Amino acid sequence: MKRIPYGHQWIDSGDIKAVVDTFKTGWLTQGPQIADFERALCRCTGAKYAVAVANGTAALHLACMAAGLKKGDEAITSPITFVASANCVLYCGAKPVFADIQDDTANIDPAEIIKHINNRTKALIPVHFAGHPCDMKEIAKIAKRHKLTVIEDAAHALGAEYRGTKIGSCKYSDMAILSFHPVKHITTGEGGAILTNRKDLYEKLSMLRTHGITKDPSKLERCDGPWYYEQHFLGFNYRITDFQSALGTSQLKKLDRFISLRRKISSAYDKAFKGTPAGFLAERSGAKSAKHIYVVRFDFSKARASKKDVFNFFLDNGIGVNLHYIPVYLQPYYRKLGYRKGSCPKAEKYYGEAITIPLFPSMTGAQASKVISTVKKASAKFFSKEK
Ligand SMILES: *Cc1c(COP(=O)(O)O)cnc(C)c1O
Question: Where does ligand 1 bind, in terms of residues with CB under 6 Å?
Answer without folding.
Answer: 55-57, 81-82, 84-85, 127, 153, 155-156, 179, 181, 192
